Amino acid sequence: PPPGPMGIDPLRSVAEEMKFMTGKIRQLIGSGHPMLDTVSKYYTQSEGKYIRPMLVLLMSQATSMLPTQSRSWSRGREEVDQSITPASVLADSNPTSPLTAPSVENGQTSDTSVLPSQRRLAEITELIHTASLLHDDVIDTSTSRRGNPSANIAFGNKMAVLAGDFLLGRASVALARLRDPEVTELLATVIANLVEGEFMQLKNTVLDERHPVWSEDAITYYLQKTYLKSASLISKSCRAAALLGDHSVDVVEAAYQYGKNLGLAFQLVDDMLDYTVSGQELGKPAGADLELGLATAPLLFAWKNNRELGTLVGRKFCEDGDVQMAREMVVRSDGIEQTRALAQDYVDNAARAISGFPDSEAKFGLIDMCSKVMERRK
Ligand code: FPP
Ligand code: MG
Ligand code: MG
């Protein structure tokens, strides 16, 4: 990607680390069952953006110069059994993932400012994210992702769901191997949060479907859902990165606030792009949210000044012409602009949260991610 406004490419400081990401992830999800292996690895073939692992690595680097403080419990890192061998058959075919490793892993000369545990965390975040995509594409009856047929289309719903479950299982194994109860709790909470967010989206409990009236509660509900569905993973993994680095509560909280605000902005922009960018550019169908009956931020803001939209919201844009009409009303309103402005507020908060970190390439990378989120087209 081209360097951002400050001439910094956020990827640059972690580029070396990222090179091995796909290989490591594929190693973690290997299965002796050839079909399970294929379905589980399907979304690792079209290389994703690796935004979550990149943020974990950048956060790990950006905090590496800060003072550490030991946490109260014994973390038993030293006791970890590293003798687990790769299994080629089904029985107990757990991933190989040594927790502590020398600074050369699989021939990769590692940046010493990133701890092996933080590197493992980066991989875990991508596993959880990919699992959620496999399930999401079943729920959304998607047809394409990253420019290819989605897994539910390529392999069917049953295998897509099971592959997602398998990824969560392997993510849990990798998490357990960190031998860090607080980090385990955080990432386990993320998995629960993803489901809670998805449920909030499935069944809106603040809108009376027969008489939907606009109120601020609709926005509050949407933002809570957005936190659970999108920002929870990013924020709690940034928090976990700081915890693994043994940093003070202030640093841990700053990392969390950065991730939370960036994550909220990320999803707001996602919901905006669904209105503003073609499916060709997105690599997945555009305008999908209205088709799914979802009222996201641009529509909620448009609804505030166009109360007629309520009728369409109530019936989830299901009648002929509803989607088209809602889309036109949103595009003509200031809903898209308001969504962009709110996303901008969030990225400003994200940058502010880490402004006290010592200057480093990684810190500028994190700040540049804020502009990248606002500029992205897919
Ligand atoms: C993409 O949203 C989906 C998510 C961010 C999370 C979906 C969560 C679940 C399906 C719950 C199950 C969770 C796990 C951990 C297995 P989107 O549909 O708005 O985005 P898209 O346009 O990329 O499909
Ligand atoms: Mg979807
Ligand atoms: Mg979805």
Description:
The protein has 378 residues and is an all-alpha fold. The strands form 2 sheets. Strands 1-2 form a two-stranded antiparallel sheet. A two-stranded antiparallel ribbon has the order 3-4. α4 crosses α9, α7 packs antiparallel against α8 and α10 runs antiparallel to α16. The longest helix has 29 residues. The two termini are 13 Å apart. The N terminus is likely disordered. The site of farnesyl diphosphate (FPP) has 18 residues, from α5, α7, α8 and α9.
- Secondary structure class reads mainly alpha
Count the beta strands: 4
Task: Indicate the proportion of strand residues.
Answer: under 5%
Quaternary class: single chain
- Order of secondary-structure elements: HHHHEEHEEHHHHHHHHHHHH
Ends: how far apart?
13 Å
User: Stretches where pLDDT falls below 50 for ≥5 residues?
Assistant: 1-6, 74-92, 96-103
- Radius of gyration from CA coordinates: 21 Å
**Could you estimate the helical fraction of the residues in percent?**
55-70%
Helix/strand layout:
Elements: H1 15-18, H2 21-28, H3 34-45, H4 51-62, E1 104-105, E2 108-109, H5 116-139, E3 144-145, E4 148-149, H6 151-155, H7 157-176, H8 181-202, H9 216-244, H10 249-276, H11 279-282, H12 288-291, H13 297-305, H14 309-314, H15 322-332, H16 335-353, H17 361-375
Helix pairs in contact: 3-7, 4-5, 4-9, 4-17, 5-7, 5-9, 7-8, 8-9, 9-10, 10-16, 10-17, 13-15, 13-16, 16-17
The protein binds farnesyl diphosphate and magnesium ion (MG) (2 copies).
Keywords: Isoprene biosynthesis, Magnesium, Metal-binding, Transferase
GO molecular function: metal ion binding; prenyltransferase activity
Biased composition (Polar residues): 82-115
